[in-house]
User: Fold these one by one.
Assistant:
Number 1:
Amino acid sequence: MSLNPPIFLKEKEENNSKFVEIQHSQTTSIAAEDPLQNLRLASQEVLQKAQQSGRSKCLKCGGSRMFYCYTCYVPVENVPIEQMPLVKLPLKIDIIKHPNETDGKSTAIHAKLLAPEFVNIYTYPCIPEYEEKDHEVALVFPGPKSVSIKDISFHLQKRIQNNVKDKNDDPDKPFIKRKKTEEQDLNDSKGQDTTLKKIIFIDSTWNQTNKIFTDERLQGLLQVELKTRKTCFWRHQKGKPDTFLSTIEAIYYFLVDYHTDILKEKYQGQYDNLLFFYSFMYQLIKNAKCSGDKETRKLIH
């Protein structure tokens, strides 16, 4: 008796295999076209209703806004705060905004609205001093000195050790005493927490970032570079590659990678709601472009 499968079974298996490949190819293609489609988001019904009713009043300043007030960092009257998601983050975030950055066009505000306890926004040059905390703070910025997210803890530990050596580098103190103190401090530093406590983002066009990045208050900080990803931002900067992310995208992708690379936990959508406003506006504009609805595009802009 032959152990070879019948020809028609072979053909069926080949056809099934091809079907799976085609399905996978189509899924990949759709995901590439709409990378925000698989997010685990809270219901956006409140935004749908707000979009239909149009601009509403800010309860703080009285300004007419769509969805939220970009000067007061609060939702407007027709977007009740209890119907918005609140996101818990694993660390604090400081956003430094360029003074020429248009408030109404910034996505940084989304982070402040959705994670208010964890996010602060500062307008340059009024920014905090970070020098004393350089072993627990990092700046997201690409460059030759930047490190990957998975290497953050290692580099923070090195900073702690360097700070110990600098502290004990006193020429007036006897060498033996200096050496003993340094050894003791280095041993103590090994047990010191090397967890990143705060991450800083610059909110500006890429042409404006240099002024903020070169500020001496940021120069000594550890620089972190994000993995390459493509932006979905509808206000993409002309002449720049599509890997230049909007601020809320940069924050979101940083946290996703931090969760898996540093916290060593499986990512299950914990920070997806940071894109609550962004994904809704993206879809609105995408639909408006397809239908030629200029009014909707004007409303969002």
Note: The radius of gyration is 25 Å.
Number 2:
Amino acid sequence: MKSGDGLYSYSNNSYLQRGVMNAAKQIVSEAIVENLDILKFSSSTTVRVADLGCSIGPNTFFAVQNILEAIELKCQNQGLDSQIPEFQVFFNDHTSNDFNTLFSSLPPNRRYHAAGVPGSFYSRLFPNRSLHIVHSSFAIQWLSRVPKKVVDRSSHAWNKGRIYYPSAADEVVEAYSAQCAEDMARFLQARAQEIADGGLMILIFAARPDEIPHSQLVANIMHDMLGCCLMDMAKKGIVSEEKVDMFNLPLYHMSDKELEAAVERNGCFSIERMESLPPISSTLQSLVSTRHKAQAISFHVRAAMEDLIKAHFGEEILDQLFDSYSKKLEQEYSLFESAGTSALNLCAVLKRKTMNC
């Protein structure tokens, strides 16, 4: 994610996700009140919450506040007003995350002790049975890596001429799906060891309706359009076509069925609740013109993708690339808006089973 607080920073371009999180607030609150066994944790004077893939704010602070308010409500409902615990919140993201920006913008009147935990959430981050609630919002669609096969010239899954999988050959789609399944197995296994029995995990993510092809998802179409802009630049000699061939986005929109299958294979969690949320595109409806919508999408994608693109192609192409992308979005906005299907944003609530696994 683009760090700092500049024009293209994530902190200034994450309001699209915020709209979805607002819609999830009631679901998250109800899930905690109904499913968190606070009496089981009453022997602990501290409730520990982790936000995985926190980025640099401000959405992570909003999510944490919602969770803590729900825990306090749970305590009050059970007559534990005088026993409301202290809270410790762990903010996790990659080591390259701008934790300085994150911690310099912590809410001044927060009711929790904050700590940063750098590292990939596809591996262990915390001691055994140490967490009571884990939250992750718009993070698990990021893969741990680009599937190796799609950048292997000798593979049938080599994704030549594209930077993403939706409109590619079946072998490319299968490589992305397999990488997602591998990543989710590691993610769930790590959390199964870290979350206390009866603890909750709340996952908010952009998903794909199971019956919809990857190529018809609006978010995937938009990312494919970014690839088209890069290929246009390659044809003009601005970047090398070989570099484009070797660049792929480490993103995958899994379906609700794929998540259910991953949870079942892991065996340590039950799915207590899974509900759909409004698509990110619904937030765009407040913008009047197609031009403003296209610019908002372009800024949003740049905030998420800039560091990846800069590392592979260099910083000098960024302004030209995203100027071209914004124009392409504006030209074709009505086309993909009518032809595509919005991503199915999901809120899934998982509960750690009381068992060894």
Note: The mean pLDDT is 89.
Number 3:
Amino acid sequence: MGDRIPIEIILHILSYLPKKEIIKLLTINHNWFNVVSKQIYNTIVLRDKKDLFNIRNLFTATAKQSLQHNHGFYSSYNYGALVRKLDLSRLDCCNLVTDPVLRDLTLDTQNLTSLNLYNCHQVTDTIFKMILVKAIHIKHLFLAGATQLTGNALISIRSKPPILQTLNIYLIPDFFHNMSSRKLGALKPVLGNLRTFKAGKLCTRHSEILCTSFEGLEELWLHGATDHQVRSILMQHHRNNTGCLKSLTLKYCKLDKVTFSYIPRSIRHLTYEHGPCSDYGWLHKHIQNLVTLRLTYSADFSLDEHLHQARALRVFAPPCISGICGLPHWSSSINRLILTIPMVSEDFDILMDAYCNQLVELQVVGSGLQKSFGRFMPCLKIFVWKVEYIPLTRFQTLPRLIPLLRVLAIGVNDERDDNIVNTLEGWKYLEVYHLKVKEPSGLEYDFGHDFQYWEKHDDVCRK
């Protein structure tokens, strides 16, 4: 097999197969076992206690095997060495992840490139430093909610020059807090090489040193940062004039007019949510280049005034619905529409007439829009309808109207659970769903699969 087809091509082909089909190939022969093992253990995503127990035992056993130079019958590889991505963000109980557990999971993961420790709040710098010393190829660190970790551990990164590209420290406000100016200065090569940085409040005694360290960012995501911190980072990019910052997300950040003026023209994706803004004049110089625009503060915002040049816009979450009917005239290429404010059915019909054949994502609020969902939407993959409840008969028509749906959230009136289950089975590609169900008796309950994780995914990982 290996003599005829390069392993890289085989792995690329295997990447299109379901895991249960790939596992069947393990029993063909020794060579296939080695190749298939590389595909199966390239990415490890742990979801429950059983997954954690099995993978921990496997990695510790094969690590001992490797030390004894006894590789067993099938594979000469240490399974830990095959891992490139280790994701613990899906665990239903993150209290299970302690320093000893994480040590066993990473005994021989020297080829690790991506590590997600979302909400693993029992993990400390001690084991985190050990991982960074061994994993010289690490590029992506998703640490949101791992509250005991600090920036001191990043000094352990050994690669020269540093190759870390993604750092997510959302929900760790003290990550840089106790670091001295000397240690923050030592981190400049690491932070200066970052392409994506996500953080909540940046609590530090040396804010200027920290905020001027991000020189090569392509994506900046901040939640609750101060006006001074945001301005310092944007001014650094303004001084360097690199034009590399493409995506800017600011949530619960109170900025003044001067700070807005430093938003670079290179921005293609802009989100400003839950932060006051009395003047959107700064938007004029960016609007013609924006592909994504999400605004959720509606003070004196006029769609007509600001969006008539939005020719490149693909993703739009407007802060108000005033003038929304004119959107198809400004931008004909919208494929993701997030409407968080209730609107009348006549206005919604205009939008659906213009975009129903091209929308990939639609999020909408309102109970008077049921008649508008009789259209065939061939491209729609994400549908979130925040409505009280729709009739079961209306819900049962959706698989026919939205055949490619992958994510669904909706409320349904139902008399029997099997009616809903049968309808869900009508979607061939459905992966994530959340249903609010109301019975005739008035009893309400929820059920779903992976929707909470999907909602928080932007916080946990990179977009």
Note: The first strand starts at residue 43 and ends at 45.
Number 4:
Amino acid sequence: SSSEWQRNHLDSKLPSSVRNTLLELFGQIEREFENLYIENLELRREIDTLNERLAAEGQTIDGAELSKGQLKTKASHSTSQLSQKLKTTYKASTSKIVSSFKTTTSRAICQLVKEYVGHRDGIWDVSVAKTQPVVLGTASADHTALLWSIETGKCLVKYVGHVGSVNSIKFHPTEQVALTASGDQTAHIWRYIVQLPTPQPTADCNQVSGEDEIEFSDKDEPDGDGDGSSDCPTIRVPLTSLKSHQGVVIAADWLVGGKQAVTASWDRTANLYDVETSELVHSLTGHDQELTHCCTHPTQRLVVTSSRDTTFRLWDFRDPSIHSVNVFQGHTDTVTSAVFTVGDNVVSGSDDRTVKVWDLKNMRSPIATIRTDSAVNRINVCVGQRIIALPHDNRQVRLFDMSGVRLARLPRSNRQGHRRMVCCSAWSEDHPICNLFTCGFDRQAIGWNINIPALLQEK
């Protein structure tokens, strides 16, 4: 225990401040162990009671086929899983113990609501419409973009105008128009009209989480080939095609007002276009390597571009006569995305496994750094609540606040969550059913319900 450790190290050569910090950390670890141990004992007692009750009916909980209803949530902690958890917990390193403890409370706060299955290859990007009807958009390596009903998981529109991977999708701020970026070296602007299906009142919100794992399929799809997009209306031709890049267009976004759009390319440039005329207004040069992402400020004429050159750049178009640029250097590997938040903050994520929060008034060093165990892909910030969603290469999605405090990890098991790299996250703060979406290389997008008040209260 920490007290024994203290007695044995009275003659330590360590400075007292370092020793006190270590003592405090050991104390925390001891408390985490104790809490886990107590929790596991309680769960084991609960399962023993359940097994006694079920023995009369000739069934016990052993982690195999589980009955539906109330029992389902209890039975998910099967005896075998518990003993395994106890074993692995005591073998694990400190950080794993702490995260294991943290996730025991995350499940009720972060619930998987819907899976959106229909793409034939990995999904690079996910986005939520800003106007009614509120639909979900996905961009995929299968050369298509799909629009979905958030409530039913049904595909509403399929865009097939690109001849390369569709790398990003963004919705116009006021119109039913989408902007997609593609490996075919273009960005397309296309109009859509959708008829939202009526949600079935009998639908169970959590039906997906109890289903057995079937690769790339969805129980709602009658054709059985995992292609939920085969029967939805198809759009083949864009309103406008933005051409002038000499390489893959990896991302695109609307400037405030929707009259201009910005694209980011592997040709190391970002381009600003006039949407109505599709003319190139500015070519933004300066990055030393391929661009990975671009993002626009919700209310001001500001653009941020990120790159494999380990930097991201802030471009200011507020004054028509001066186009200033600021370079942010704080990462040691590819910056995978940088996004604006409320006020004067930018949040950047990187393959160096960190996420950094920056103040635009002081760009020399970040105001917070989040260190993780896996490369970070396209991040998104819940503006109202200032919560950052981090999608990782290692299939995890974690939630942090702006000061770098970890709030939760989205549940992931062989029954739910992403089965391959998670590429992107997108918040939809006002949606009553799903307020966070993620997508990945497993060809599916997932809608989550995050109980934000409970999440923040737990913090």
Note: The longest strand covers residues 110-117.
